Amino acid sequence: MPDGWEWDPTLFQGCAAYYERGRLPYAPGFAETLAATLGLDGRGRLLDVGCGPGTVILPLARFFTEAVGIDPDEDMLAEAERQAGRRGVTNARWVAARAEDLPAGLGTFRVVVFAQSFHWTDRDRVAATVLDMLEPGGAFVHMSDLENPPAEPAPLPLPAPPYARIGDLVRRYLGPVRRAGQGTLVNGTPDREDLVLARAGFENFERHAVASGAVADRTADDIVAWVFSRSDSAPHLFGERLEDFERDLRAVLRQTSPDNRFAERLPATEIMIWHKPHAEP
Where does the record place the Methyltransferase domain (predicted)? Predict the structure, then answer.
């Protein structure tokens, strides 16, 4: 859990409506890569902790008998259920809970996934609980965008979104320290998942990077949705100044691209896997 920060239910309040449009997808093929790596065959159960609107659990559900998504945000779960209906996913169910509520009577799983959510949790406590919830040899999977990818030689066909200027604008409205719900992240979010999971008793680490290579065309509405999908610029944080902020945000976007069209490369996806030891013979 981030230093000096305490979770509260407003962390992603109001973000669910913007998530699907605003967030860039994980690399195409991430689900197939994970299935091949773990030998998934349609059996066993999947748990997605901090599932949000179903971004990861829905593509993976077909490789399991049952998929369970938990998230403390009811709006995220409602959006996940809606997306499941759109995609014809019938073996997923949704539970309103935090990672710290586990095991929550949910049973045993073959795979437990944290997609850019583990850093929000009491990591040592949650890792130990997840170890107990996994079947022998089961996998703890951590997914995120690949940081510091190699530079692409080809230029983008349109201007890139002005993320640095957007960050400056957010700080002008919300202050210099990154917001997260009712608190702030003075030191950012923690990393070194490897140390946490080693302490918990996981072993046999492996890492996979799934390349994307695609370029996404983005509109101003997409970038606005991205801003409002984030915990550090969730709509409620702006209070009565929300309309003023959005007006200024759209002005920044127009200054970068007068026709409000942008392009950006889809990031590669990093998949890190740790295993629960097999039971002693």
Answer: 47-138
Residue 64 CB partners (closer than 8 Å, separation 6+): 40, 42, 43, 44, 45, 46, 91, 110, 111
Residue 154, C-beta contacts closer than 8 angstroms, at least 6 positions apart: none
pLDDT digits 0-9 by tens, 50-106: 999 999 999 999 999 999 999 999 999 999 999 999 999 999 999 999 999 999 999
Angle made by CA atoms 253, 259, 263, in degrees to the nearest 5: 70
Helix (H, G, I), strand (E, B) or coil at 157: coil
- Integer CA distances (angstroms), 55 to 52, 92, 251, 273, in order: 7, 13, 30, 19
Global confidence as pTM: 0.93
**Angle at CA 129, nearest 5°, toward 203 and 124?**
70
Q: In the chain, what are the domains?
A: 16-147+156-275 (3.40.50.150)
Neighbours of 96 (CB within 10 A): 13
Q: Which of 152, 157, 140, 113 is nearest to 199 (CA)?
A: 140
Tell me how far apart the alpha carbons of residues 113 and 26 are, in angstroms, rounded to a whole number. 14
Give me the amino acid identity at 58: L
Taking a C-beta distance cutoff of 8 angstroms, is the pair 50, 120 a contact?
yes
Contact 232, 170 (CB under 8 A): yes
Q: How far is CA 141 from the centre of its chain?
A: 12
Which tens digit of pLDDT belongs to each residue from 194-213? Answer: 999 999 999 999 999 998 87
Euclidean distance between CA atoms 91 and 105, whole angstroms? 18
Residue with tokens 């072993």: 203
Please give the order of strands across the beta sheet that includes 45-49: 92-96, 66-71, 45-49, 109-115, 134-145, 269-275, 203-210
